[in-house]
């Protein structure tokens, strides 16, 4: 979304100009008109200012409500930019302030979820890489002892030696076809015996302790 | 690859079909050698294994042109599928050219007949009219004897299965005599007036009892066989060999046998071919089942 | 009479639908995936045989591998072996075959593969499972340190049972192909 298309910006520009015009007229009046009319003028200006503020508040509320809409189609960054702009208007309206707090909370949640997901993906990638490295090391181990040592190390990443291992043999029409489910211990021994590493890590599921409880592999 | 070429040159009396197989193999090799990965070291020359018709299933597929030169299944979206040109090539290599004395002219008529562009004939696994002849050994009262089992593929509500259709067991054949009225062994036509009291005499001489049965009666080897098995007098020893008889193609009969030998003309091959009409087929079946009198 | 006729038609219709089902259920793409899965298991078996037959393999390790190899097989699977000079088929249970192999005590066992395999169509059996046969050629070579060598080339026709199964794992249903090896016909060849 193009920022220039966002309405509050235009609105605030417009109202600032209007306000300036009102003040200029007021200043001219102050110089030429008497005390009584000065008061009257000031009162009119205040009324106009209040009207302008009311318009701004309405627009701000509309924008903030848009940010609360789950189907706004805006990215988190765009939402944060809009929120900051509304806040910088310092409207100091109780309703707007309440909405701002609501939006702030919502965006903070979204931000946290995003960072969490990114962190998890990075963690997954790291665990996946480590596992793939173990697979490679076990398949290529020069000795039985070496293979067994790698198996024991790799098993440490899992909640138990019986952790589930699923192997995708083909995917078509959104349907996954698996080989017979096995366990991580059996799978690691399979790599050791067959000296071949034909599957790569596709998905990792962790338990509460952060150990792998389920592993999905896919044919390379 | 070089080995294939070298041996190719060293063979002097190359038959046309062998040439054909070579052509097939040479085109097939570069793909398959690169296309495979697996355990252990691969061995060199396997052209003979390519040429061999390794399964009866492959015999069907080659006959119908339902697989490519490498033995990969092809489907009806491929130009090669059921291609008359390819079928002529394939069927040519499906005959035993070494031991069975098949009539060359007859072979050509057969190939022409089944690959006819307007009315081609294909073999169907589930099409019936073909069966297996299985040569086995059984132990019968302590003595090993040959038994021939005739097996047919039976369609079921789900899938299919092979079933024993008939058995031929030589000891049973020896047990039952051919009937002849000459030796005076019969129940005279007025026996009924005496309430068949003369039956006692015929059952005294067990070895002749079948002479008193009807002309139509034929000993059913399969029932006897199962009876002896159940009574514990008969037990399975081993399989010796298997062949198949095909009556599926109109006006033709052929026999399929397995040839395990050196060279390229190996595996499941046609070992016998005959042009037979419906009636001739029936009497030939009787001959195969040892049912001829 | 008409009742029987109806029954006959019903059975006939059922048998047709059974066959149609058999053709419909496994698409060529899926069949290819099953074929390569089955072939992988056949190759795995070859590797297990080398480990079991090798004298360097510790006894406990060999026993573990026998158990793993047995997991490839369906219940009651047998090897039917014949040689060039003995046409009759000799039968061995799968476990018996492995145990004999372990007892042979070659210093080295190598299973070499010819670069060819033939995979039959998958046919439906009356129990709904699919069955196929994979044909491979192998050269078995057993060597002892004193130079004694045994070698043969065999054609192996290996039964493959394929069954679509489902299992519940943590509340979700996982569909998988259970591929098991069945009887193996071993024929010595001349090459």
UniProtKB/TrEMBL annotation, chain A:
Ranges in coiled-coil conformation: 38-67
Keywords carried by this UniProt record: Coiled coil
Name of the protein in question: Lipoprotein
Protein species of origin: Agaribacillus aureus
Automatic annotation (TrEMBL), chain C:
Keyword set, alphabetical order: Signal
Secretion signal span: 1-22
Keyword check for Signal: yes
Highest taxon above the source species: Bacteria
Name by which UniProt lists this protein: Uncharacterized protein
Native species: Agaribacillus aureus
